[in-house]
């Protein structure tokens, strides 16, 4: 694998420190229930601080790009550095590379090591989702395997990775991922199921109502309520 652009990593960290408001760090950490400390850089300030840097310092090699994302992520001492790694991974200049099936392992690594909803959800929806859409034949089996994994964050990612795909949602895959976790009492999985179904109800309300009805009592009250929040149970 190519060497990471350590200078870019250092510049990103410096930009975050410059934008930091220490008074916000502790409340942000408490809200997120994060073991990793915060610098105190809210998302709008982070995006604004890093956007010019990411535009000016475009990496010219996909392997260097992946290595740089990994270095920023794995070496993070503050949570904003992991947010910055996601921002780098999803930056417009790297869209083609970020939609290659070859980088699914990078996103899986971020999901498993991130292990909390703020990181997992962004990566699942905005990174894994586009890879799945672009490479269904090769990525669908991987997502199905995640849905049955012991790790709840892989499973949550499998359930929600099609959020926002609208007409491109593979309903068979969605149903399989939901049913793989439908009996699990974990709050994050139940919430994810309701969210994924609710989002798809905006595109295909009849399918979602039918799925909820067929699932019966296997769906938790939380998942059912969230799934039907927009469209109701119908007649």
UniProtKB/TrEMBL annotation:
InterPro entries with a match to the protein in the record: ARM-type_fold (IPR016024), DNA_alkylation (IPR014825)
Top-level taxon in the UniProt lineage: Bacteria
Species of provenance: Haloactinopolyspora alba
UniProt cross-references to PANTHER family, sorted A to Z: ARMADILLO-TYPE FOLD (PTHR34070), DNA ALKYLATION REPAIR PROTEIN (PTHR34070:SF1)
Cited SUPFAM superfamilies: ARM repeat
Name of the molecule in the record: 3-methyladenine DNA glycosylase AlkD
